Amino acid sequence: MVHxxxxxxxxxxLLQRLEGGIALKFIFGGLLVGLFxxxxxxxxxxxxxxxxxxxxxxxxxVSLVINFVGLExxxxxxxxxGLGWLGVVVLVRGDDAWVAAETDGGRP
Length: 108
Hints:
mainly alpha
């Protein structure tokens, strides 16, 4: 499409057909549903295991709700806080703490 020798009118027509097609809408719709479902499953799993502080899955769910409202930048901030905090917890805890939590039924 971006090649200089390509016919501009044909490329514009092709782009309009692609954007107007139902297949692309299904692909992006599935992507969005999978993304939001992934957020919910991750939050539920973190909440159920009780290995990490409850604020981490709460922050991820708050980001999902704020994203549905339409405040994308604020949603990304909460998501970054939740995943960043989760990353710090994973890095700071030693292997022995994870094994103990696993054998203890998920309690830290």
